[in-house]
Amino acid sequence: MSTLSLSALNVKIRLSWFRSLKGKLMLLFLMVLLLPVLSIGLLIYHQVLPSFKVEVINKLMAVRDLKANQITEYFKERLTDIKVLARMPVTLAALTSFEQAVESSMKALGMDEVATMNHYRSLYLGKAKLVDAGDGSDYSAVHAQYHPLFKAYVAAYSFLDLLLVEPHSGNILYSVNKADDFATSVLTGPYANSHLNPIFRQALLAHEQDFTAVTDFAYYDAAQAMTLFIATPIMADSKVKGILILQLPMEPIDAIMQQPSGLGKTGEAILVSADDLLRRSHSRFSKENTLVTQKIDHAASRAAAAGETGVKEIIDEEGKPKLVAYTPLNIAGVRWLLLTQLDPAESFRAIQTLLQWALTIFGITIVIVLIIAVVVGHAIVKPIQVMTEIARRLANGETKLTVAVKKSQDEIGVMAQAFEQMIVYLQQMVKDIVQISQGLAVGNLQVTSRIQYRGDFLQIKQELAIALPNLQQVIADIVQVSQGLAQGNLQVVPRAEYQGDFAPIKPALETALADLRQVIQDIVQVSQSLAEGCHNVMPTGQYQGDFAQIKTALANAATQLTQVMIRNADQDWLKTGLTQLNDQMRGDLEITLLAKSIITFLCTYLNAKVGLFYVVQVDQENKPLLKSMASYAYTRRKNVANEFQLGESLVGQAALEQQPIIVTQVPKEYIQIQSGTGEAVPHNLVVMPFLYETHLKGVIEIGTFATLTEVQLEFLNQAMPNIGIAINTAQSRSQMQALLRQSQSPAKDLLLAQLDIIT
């Protein structure tokens, strides 16, 4: 008796790979994998990539708008400063006194105006700290009276110099720093060709007291630096009595432009002249001086010079691709362009890495599926090939055969057992049923018995009469289900009544069809929901086997898209809060009212329940002291200090380190939130110092029940520099007023003394 095994097939039925069962199984596995993966890939390409690019552009535009607002506000404050100073009676009095002193000195020295100015130039040139030359002249007396005031003003507002210019001959009667332009004529002197000349002429022709003029940055030999001038007329009785000119340094503009703004390693903010497209700010990437030497000439700068605001992808001067957000600026007639730019490759590196990983995982998945398809196909096809060969040998008359197929409980195992039984039966009655066996071997299910069975063999005939119709029905049902699936009809169901060993076929087919329908329905439902903007949708089906990967991929896609939308919403909330906070800080508010407005807005916007605002002052020993200036929903208690030294308590420690401190377990005795129904301790405490440039200006302390999110903490970090600027401005305004009062008091005493002498 010969044994037929998987490795002992002498004859193989050769079929086309696409027609073979193994080929069909592998194609089915690939189709089931590729369809959902390709759907997810298309979803990522059309939804995630555009959303990520929009987020990068919005961030670039936000940085552009923030820096444009900072530069505009800086010059707005400086122009307001010079207008306020020009309107002060002390400024007009100083100009008049210097003119009168020069006229009296001309008579006393017997010199003309040029010679007289050269005389005082020899006494004061390069001596910015000299208050009185000690020559007993009227000029030195006037200089001693007003020089401390103007010197303190220049130091307080970080100007390079302050000039008082006589309107007729353009002589610089007074300057704080006594640079080389002191006591020379703006019209005919050595600096008549500098950018000081045109701004003097503009102010001289002004008809309104509020007129201000600004020059572009240019190199000024007297200061040996890049500077710009702002000027305004000093008027009395609607006539120009003189010109007040302030000299501004380059450093504040560079500080604004080079302030870190989250643009990465390649990001940069650039200030460019609209007239010659040359840089007006230093580059953060170049150690060489690029100011007024490097030309920024590309599509974005030209569009901004034409008055447009927008975003462009350009090739810069070095041939590198850049993403540029641009806008024009107009500062009192001076036209500049503000550009914020970064390298697109750096911005999109994360999404490119994600795509590379997705492609890698996709390729690995294909290889795994192919291996599984080969293994499963081999396990299914090889036993069928063995049984096919047995049927062929039986059809050829070989009945002494056994089936060497691994026993299993599936349909193939049942079929192998049936073959073994059939061989035993056929060995006993091979001569009587040869023609029936041959018919079955060639697939003819219409074969019938041609002989008359007698005795026990009659039962065989009866069973054959029953088995053949049942087999025909099973095959027909399987064919109609297979054809329905091939045509994409997932609603097809088995219709036949399966009996005996065929019974497991029906529930297996129904289960497979139901699982496939659930997979397709979930893919359609998730895709439609994502397309309609619903980002919380998740697959609902319980997937088995390899289908579980589809559910994971769908859930990951929905989760990533939701995270992108949440980040966009956080950025919108952050920008809105910063804008509203800047609106709260505008205007000439007294520092107490300004502090109250700031702490109230921060607590309201962050849903904080209590807040305190501390400002740096000096104590009697001239040491820095943090004093509570304003609060929100805070009730002062006995034995609780409202002022701290540096390093004292959380407030003092945060100020000393100039770093924020976050406390998540606040002691009961530290601070309380009170209302009409009771009181409670905040669960979280945030202590944030704010600075102006590198100088500590104060500390903000906020208490909340809920932990502040990362975006709320980022909002506080971005808000601190603006708060520092606002507090510094308010303090400077207060100091200027105090200086004015101090300068008026000696003048008043001198006048009273003169009146006493006369009387």
Model description:
With 759 residues, the chain is α+β, with helices and mostly antiparallel strands. The chain has four domains: 2-51 and 352-476 and 503-518, no CATH class; 88-235, no CATH class; 253-347, 2-Layer Sandwich (Beta-Lactamase), CATH 3.30.450; 587-743, GAF domain (Beta-Lactamase, 2-Layer Sandwich). Helix content is 51%, strand content 16%. It is built from 17 helices and 20 strands. Strands 2, 3, 4, 5, 6 and 7 form a six-stranded antiparallel β-sheet that branches. α2 (89-109) crosses α3, α2 (89-109) packs antiparallel against α4 and α9 (349-395) runs antiparallel to α11. It starts with a strand and ends with a helix. It is found in: Cell membrane. Belongs to the methyl-accepting chemotaxis (MCP) protein family. This is Methyl-accepting chemotaxis protein. Pfam families: dCache_1, GAF_2, HAMP.
Keywords, separated by commas or semicolons:
759 residues, alpha+beta, Beta-Lactamase, 4 domains, 6-stranded antiparallel sheet, elongated
Topology summary:
Elements: E1 2-4, H1 21-87, H2 89-109, H3 113-124, H4 138-157, E2 161-165, E3 172-175, H5 196-204, E4 213-214, E5 218-220, E6 225-236, E7 239-248, H6 251-257, E8 268-273, H7 299-305, E9 310-315, E10 321-331, E11 334-342, H8 344-347, H9 349-395, E12 401-403, H10 411-429, H11 434-441, H12 457-486, H13 505-531, H14 548-585, H15 591-606, E13 610-618, E14 624-632, E15 643-645, H16 649-657, E16 661-663, E17 673-675, E18 678-680, E19 684-692, E20 695-704, H17 710-758
Parallel strand pairs: 1-12
Antiparallel strand pairs: 2-3, 2-7, 4-6, 5-6, 6-7, 8-11, 9-10, 10-11, 13-14, 13-20, 14-15, 16-19, 17-18, 19-20
Helix pairs in contact: 1-9, 1-14, 2-3, 2-4, 4-17, 9-10, 9-11, 13-14, 14-15, 14-17, 15-17
